[in-house]
Each structure stands twice: as structure tokens, then as C-alpha cells.
């Protein structure tokens, strides 16, 4: 049974907020989970253990500590847990940006592998959206690893979050069982909670892109996959308004089986996708077959202007839902 007590307690009456609550309740019911806000020490200690299990860090290098989560909850930030019965299977927490930004920064969301295909992560994000809208905040931001296909699809197609910035090696070395000391490049996304696109996907209508349709309409491949599975830089200096950027099928497995190839993918995506975003291009969507569909804007860009990495800002571990 879905727990909505914490949502109802803090409800701000308005049609968008009411619709957000309804979507969150439906998503939790479909996933077969109970989602609630967490603030007790025992609950937050369980979150710490959950993240250690997901990221395989061990007790000596926790992703987050219970005392920090306790402070965030007390200060009015967002900390939630997803339960199947009494088992904690997922959690998400975030904190507010400065008042002028009117945004929540969602720092970490994680779901145990054995429940990922039940849309637990989707339900957690919809709970977070309703909670945030009820506080008069209209945007949530977070980062994710651009090489992880399932996260790119989840963020861009299932949630309609907008990639805003490419952040090279954002957190520095992260030595856990997922990242394996790879450079921690991230994409910062912004989720505009009351946008028509967000309302549509939260009603269960994802927005996947179709790379083949884009190619039939003139898109060119800026980064593809070679016959050996390595990145293959394509045409970035032509006049195509839309370009396609590939990512490997399973970067986490590749880091184990072929670390050198994994590093080459990191560098190639940083150069191509990072360069496009730095030059003002917009990610239109993500094809679950492993393609970013990117629209370049100005005539100067389309003619093949110089790509740059730019100087970026800071944050911490990825969401993985």
C-alpha cells in the first residue's frame, strides 16, 4: 500500500501540485512500493547501508553518512525511502539551491538492482517532484554519468529532464565498484517540474528519441561505434543541424573487461558531446539503442565552429535509478 501521509501533511493546494501528488501515488502503486520521507537515525543509517550496497564502497568509504542525512532532513531538505514491506530498496535525497535559483539539487538516488525493472526509481522521482512543487519550487537539478545508457534514457526520455552542462571529472576520483576510478564526468540536468513535457512523462508517456528517424531526416553521426566496440569519431564539421552521439552498451561491464576501451569512450564522449553542449547545442532526446540526438543552434555552430570544453562548476555522486 502506498504511503502518502508525508505528502498530504505538506500539501499546498493547487492544480499542478494536486496532479503531481496523483501521479506520484499512481507510480508508487504500480511499482508496488511504499515511499515516505525519512528523518530518524535508524532510517538514515539504513540509507547509508543501502548506498554502500549499491555503489559497493564498503563501510570505510560511505557514499553518505547518517548524521549528514539527519542534518539535511532537520534543515528541511528532501530525504526519502522506497520500501517493499519492511525492506528499504531505494532512496533519494537532495538539498535546496540558493533562494534566487528556486531549485532543489537532487544529490543521490539509488535503487537496489533486483527491483530496478519495477520502476522504483521513477516512483521515487515523482514523489520528489510532488514534494518539491508543494514547497513552491519549480525545478530539480542533478548529475549523471553520460556513459550510462539506462540513466541517460531514464533522465531524458522517462523524466523529460534537460541536459544543461557537461562537467568533466566533476567529483574527482570515485573509487567504488561502479566507477572504478574512471574520471567522474557528469551531465547536469534540469527538470522543470510544471512543464508540459514533465506533466506528460509523469502521466506515463515517455519521450524516447529515434536515431534512425533523425538520420533519415539528415542527421549525421558525430560519434559512433566501431566494429570492435570502440568509439569512432564521425562527422562534426559538416552542415548538419542534428548530430548523433553514441555511448557504449554497458560502460560498467566495459570498465571490468576492457579498461582501456572504457577510457577511450570517456575521452571521446567528453570531446564530442561535451564540446557540443559547450557550444550551445541542445540534447533533443535519447534513443534507448544508445544515441544522444543533439540539435546544433546557430549557423556558426552548424558550419563547424570550434568546440570547447569550457570551465565548469561542482557537486557529487551520480543518480542511478
From TrEMBL:
Alphabetical UniProt keywords: Transferase
Domain of life of the source: Bacteria
UniProt entry tagged with the keyword Chaperone: no
Membrane-spanning ranges: none
Biased composition (Basic and acidic residues): 312-321
Stretch list, region Disordered: 298-321
Molecular function via GO: transferase activity
UniProt key word Lipid metabolism: no
InterPro entries the UniProt entry points to: Acyl_CoA_acyltransferase, GNAT_N_AcTrfase_prd
PANTHER family: GCN5-RELATED N-ACETYLTRANSFERASE, N-ACETYLTRANSFERASE DOMAIN-CONTAINING PROTEIN
Protein name: Predicted acetyltransferase, GNAT superfamily
Amino acid at each position: 500500500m502506498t504511503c502518502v501521509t508525508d505528502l498530504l501533511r505538506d500539501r499546498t493546494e493547487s492544480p499542478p501540485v494536486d496532479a503531481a501528488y496523483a501521479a506520484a501515488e499512481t507510480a508508487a502503486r504500480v511499482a508496488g512500493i511504499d515511499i515516505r520521507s525519512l528523518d530518524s537515525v535508524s532510517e538514515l543509517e539504513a540509507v547509508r547501508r543501502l548506498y554502500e550496497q549499491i555503489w559497493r564502497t564498503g563501510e570505510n568509504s560511505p557514499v553518505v553518512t547518517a548524521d549528514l542525512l539527519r542534518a539535511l532532513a532537520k534543515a528541511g531538505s528532501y530525504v526519502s525511502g522506497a520500501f517493499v514491506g519492511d525492506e528499504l530498496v531505494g532512496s533519494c535525497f537532495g538539498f535546496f539551491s540558493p533562494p534566487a535559483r528556486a531549485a532543489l539539487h537532487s544529490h543521490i538516488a539509488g535503487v537496489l538492482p533486483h527491483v530496478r525493472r519495477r520502476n522504483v526509481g521513477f516512483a521515487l522521482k515523482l514523489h520528489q517532484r510532488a514534494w518539491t512543487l508543494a514547497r513552491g519550487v519549480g525545478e530539480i537539478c542533478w548529475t549523471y554519468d553520460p556513459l550510462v545508457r539506462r540513466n541517460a534514457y531514464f533522465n531524458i526520455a522517462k523524466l523529460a529532464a534537460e541536459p544543461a552542462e557537461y562537467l568533466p571529472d566533476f567529483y574527482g576520483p570515485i573509487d567504488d565498484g561502479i566507477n572504478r576510478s574512471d574520471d567522474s564526468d557528469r551531465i547536469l540536468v534540469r527538470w522543470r517540474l510544471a512543464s508540459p513535457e514533465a506533466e506528460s512523462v509523469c502521466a506515463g508517456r515517455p519521450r524516447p528519441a529515434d536515431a534512425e528517424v533523425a538520420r533519415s531526416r539528415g542527421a549525421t553521426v558525430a560519434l559512433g561505434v566501431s566494429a570492435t566496440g570502440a568509439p569512432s569519431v564521425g562527422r562534426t564539421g559538416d552542415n548538419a543541424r542534428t548530430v548523433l552521439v553514441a555511448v557504449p552498451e554497458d560502460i560498467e561491464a566495459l570498465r571490468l573487461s576492457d579498461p582501456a576501451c572504457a577510457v577511450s569512450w570517456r575521452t571521446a564522449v567528453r570531446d564530442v558531446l561535451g564540446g557540443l553542449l559547450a557550444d550551445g547545442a541542445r540534447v533533443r532526446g535519447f534513443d534507448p539503442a544508445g544515441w544522444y540526438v543533439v540539435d546544433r543552434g546557430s549557423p556558426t555552430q552548424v558550419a563547424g565552429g570550434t568546440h570547447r570544453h569550457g570551465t565548469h562548476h561542482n557537486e557529487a555522486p551520480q543518480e542511478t535509478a
